[in-house]
């Protein structure tokens, strides 16, 4: 499903120009037609080919998608091919390459985290926060979904979140008031509380939180918090932070119900090769 509309895609195309390149029709070759094939340079999960096809179309080029978002590809696999007037094609291809490489880097990072968690503990869900890079949120959310991660707080659509910052505005008294206020406003909703250490987690649980979001805590600290809560605590525990695939198994086996990671948003871009052919 496309998440970026034509207005957003047109803005990306406006930033590209072939004026400084020796590309175009030229006075002696009006409307010269050219084709381009975009291929993966390394294995990974692809995202953004649907937007890529629209970007080519907006500049009058025809495109064929070979790998839809979420597809796992190998080096040399064709992602998308396009054909059109040389100047328009090259202009679109420059923007398309950037979009595909960034989105696919995010998608592949999410996919590797999901795979690492599933191998360690299939019962643990993986999600990414809505708080993504400014200006890139729609594409970022599509990319993590293409990698198999959910979008937080979709894991708890019925929950109301109390941020950790509430303590700076009034401490425990404010926390109890916030929890009570949430329950009064929406009796059927569960209350999620963001915490930063074991003591805050135990405090929030004691005040009636249904869900604890353990933020930027090390795996051993998360495990210690779960032990302190005890097996009889009926709520859910989520670990959150920029958690990479390498650290994901330690969190997945700590006793949590879900892992919420922002790491994919800062992943290295994928590498995509462009091969042009005139005529």
Q: What does this entry show, briefly?
A:
This protein is an alpha/beta fold.
Task: Set out the fold topology.
Layout: H1 6-14, E1 33-40, E2 44-45, H2 49-58, E3 62-65, E4 72-73, E5 78-85, H3 86-120, E6 125-129, H4 137-146, E7 150-152, E8 159-162, H5 171-185, E9 190-195, H6 198-206, E10 211-215, H7 219-229, E11 236-241, H8 248-252, E12 258-261, E13 272-278
Parallel strand pairs: 6-7, 6-12, 8-9, 9-10, 10-11, 11-12
Antiparallel strand pairs: 1-5, 1-13, 2-4, 3-5
Helix pairs in contact: 1-2, 2-3, 3-4, 6-7
Describe the structure.
The chain has 279 residues and is an alpha/beta fold. The protein has 2 domains: 114 residues, Quinolinate phosphoribosyl transferase, N-terminal domain (Aldehyde Oxidoreductase, domain 3); 153 residues, Aldolase class I (TIM Barrel, Alpha-Beta Barrel), CATH 3.20.20.70. The protein is built from 8 helices and 13 strands. It has a 7-stranded parallel beta sheet. A 4-stranded antiparallel beta sheet has the order 3-5-1-13, with helices on one face. Helix 1 crosses helix 2 and helix 6 runs parallel beside helix 7. The radius of gyration is 23 Å and the shape is elongated. The model has no long low-confidence stretch (mean pLDDT 90).
């Amino acid at each position: 499903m496309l998440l970026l509309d034509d207005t957003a895609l047109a803005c990306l195309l406006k930033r590209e120009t072939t004026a400084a390149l020796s590309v175009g029709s030229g006075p002696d070759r009006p409307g010269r037609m050219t084709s381009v094939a975009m291929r993966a340079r390394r294995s990974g999960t692809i995202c953004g080919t649907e937007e890529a096809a629209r970007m080519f179309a907006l500049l009058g080029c025809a495109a064929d998608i070979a790998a839809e978002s979420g597809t796992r590809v190998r080096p040399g696999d064709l992602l998308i091919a396009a054909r059109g007037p040389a100047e328009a094609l090259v202009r679109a291809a420059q923007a398309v390459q950037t979009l595909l490489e960034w989105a696919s880097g995010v998608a592949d990072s999410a996919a590797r985290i999901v795979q690492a968690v599933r191998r360690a503990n299939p019962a643990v869900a993986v999600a990414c926060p809505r708080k993504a890079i400014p200006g890139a949120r729609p594409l970022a959310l599509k990319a993590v979904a293409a990698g198999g991660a959910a979008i937080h707080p979709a894991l708890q659509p019925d929950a109301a979140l109390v941020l950790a910052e509430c303590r700076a505005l009034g401490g425990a008294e404010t926390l109890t008031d916030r929890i009570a206020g949430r329950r009064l406003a929406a009796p059927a909703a569960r209350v999620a509380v963001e915490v930063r250490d074991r003591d805050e987690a135990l405090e929030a649980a004691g005040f009636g939180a249904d869900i604890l979001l353990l933020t930027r805590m090390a795996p051993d600290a998360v495990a210690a918090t779960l032990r302190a809560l005890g097996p009889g605590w009926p709520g859910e525990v989520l670990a959150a932070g920029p958690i990479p695939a390498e650290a994901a198994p330690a969190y997945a086996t700590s006793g949590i119900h879900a892992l919420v990671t922002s790491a994919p948003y800062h992943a290295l871009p994928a590498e995509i090769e462009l091969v042009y052919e005139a005529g």
